[in-house]
């Protein structure tokens, strides 16, 4: 569980968001905010709209209605050039990691730098690559291919590639999925390290209760596409709410089965 977060400025504000697919209403009047410097964990059963929400924040999906304000800009109203400028300030760690299999680790990390930080010299690019790898604990992997890495290592390299462009906001989509409990805990601690070193504001989508406990300054639980409960981690742990207790118990059982 994280320390108290003193910051109150909102870097993301989601208001009255609706998103459906055909006859299925996934987000139904969803509202919440991400505060500067905090890790916000979003919990909820599959199909409650967690991943859809963060995809709407970067407009990989377009909301049907409502507003999403990111760093002072309504992303639903931005033209493509302005949207890309905002996206460059947001790091998105996908479940799969999404490394380029045909590139070495070095090339995977150089790629976003050359695209976004176009004024950097070759010496500066080299330094940034080494710094990012040091920060995820894998400096020795610099010339390896993704196929030579374990699942946990691939996740770390994906995280290095995300932070190398100095994002203000991080979006983590199930960062510990498919990892063993020890590696999952290492990734959770790394999320906290990134928060401290890069001063990021982060949304963490997870089913992993231990990840949530380790990383969260604040939690929200979604039910049927809207916020069911919001609070500090201890408020979720010390509640009489049957839905929340059953959710935590079911996820704890799943975690035990994987150990």
TrEMBL record:
Keyword Oxidoreductase: no
InterPro entries per the UniProt record, alphabetical: AAA+_ATPase, ABC_transporter-like_ATP-bd, ABC_transporter-like_CS, P-loop_NTPase
UniProt cross-references to Gene3D superfamilies, sorted A to Z: P-loop containing nucleotide triphosphate hydrolases
Residue span, ABC transporter domain: 12-249
Sorted UniProt keywords: ATP-binding, Nucleotide-binding, Transport
Gene Ontology MF terms: ATP binding; ATP hydrolysis activity
Entry annotated with the keyword DNA repair: no
PANTHER family xrefs: PROTEIN TRIGALACTOSYLDIACYLGLYCEROL 3, CHLOROPLASTIC (PTHR43023)
Protein name from the UniProt record: ABC transporter ATP-binding protein
Organism field: Flavobacterium pallidum
């Amino acid at each position: 569980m994280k320390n108290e977060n003193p910051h109150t400025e909102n870097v993301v504000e989601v208001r009255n968001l609706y998103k459906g697919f055909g006859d299925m209403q996934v987000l139904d009047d969803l509202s919440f905010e991400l505060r500067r410097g905090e890790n916000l964990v979003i919990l909820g059963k599959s199909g409650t709209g967690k991943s859809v929400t963060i995809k709407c924040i970067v407009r990989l999906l377009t909301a049907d209605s409502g507003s999403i304000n990111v760093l002072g800009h309504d992303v639903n109203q931005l033209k493509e050039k302005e949207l890309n400028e905002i996206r460059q300030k947001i790091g998105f760690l996908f479940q799969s990691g999404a490394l380029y299999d045909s590139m070495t680790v070095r090339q995977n990390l150089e790629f976003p730098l050359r695209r976004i930080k176009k004024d950097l010299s070759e010496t500066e690019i080299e330094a940034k690559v080494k710094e990012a790898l040091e920060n995820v604990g894998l400096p020795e992997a610099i010339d390896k291919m993704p196929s030579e890495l374990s699942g946990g290592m691939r996740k770390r390299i994906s995280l290095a590639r995300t932070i190398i462009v100095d994002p203000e906001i991080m979006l983590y989509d199930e960062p510990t999925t498919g990892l063993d409990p020890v590696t999952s805990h290492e990734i959770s601690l790394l999320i906290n390290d990134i928060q401290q070193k890069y001063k990021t504001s982060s949304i963490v989508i997870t089913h992993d209760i231990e990840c949530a406990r380790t990383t969260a300054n604040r939690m929200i639980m979604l039910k049927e596409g809207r916020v069911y409960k919001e609070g500090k981690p201890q408020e979720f742990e010390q509640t009489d709410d049957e839905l929340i207790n059953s959710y935590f118990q079911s996820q704890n059982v799943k975690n035990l089965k994987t150990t």
